[in-house]
Amino acid sequence: MAKSSKERLSDDEDSGAEGSKLVRPDAMEKELIEFVAAVDDSRRRLGKSQLSPAEFLAVAKALGYRGPRGVGIKALEQALAHYRQSQKRLFPSCSEIHGLLLELGFRRSAA
After folding, report:
1. Average pLDDT, the chain
2. Of 47, 27, 25, whose CA–CA distance to 37 is shortest?
3. What is the pLDDT of residue 21?
């Protein structure tokens, strides 16, 4: 039986290490919900359970996110490596990756 969108979001945002940046689905901002949905669509289209940093960045850019000059894949890879080590999470959730992108200075362009 197919899961509802709320159940899928709940699965992605399950509880993790203390101090992690998990967001409850009912507390998500519209921008985060759109990012999570776009990542989910990309996972299905690519037939992958986890996306690479480059694929996460491509999803963000497709949604209109732009980072500061010189901040790109290397910065995201470093931020993910640090986050995985500090939070002891091999696969950060979509909301955690979205948060890392924001910390790196990525912002969504006005449509």
Report:
1. 82
2. 25
3. 54
**Which of 72, 87, 79 has its CA nearest to residue 103?**
79
What's the predicted TM-score (pTM) here?
Answer: 0.74
d(CA 69, CA 84): 25
Cα separation, 72 vs 104, in Å, equals 9
Q: Give the separation between CA 96 and CA 76, rounded to whole angstroms.
A: 12
Tokens for 9, please give them: 């979001």
- How many angstroms separate the CA atoms of 104 and 68, rounded? 8
If we measure between CA atoms, which residue out of 42, 46, 45, 44 comes closest to residue 62?
42
Bridge partner list, 65: 108
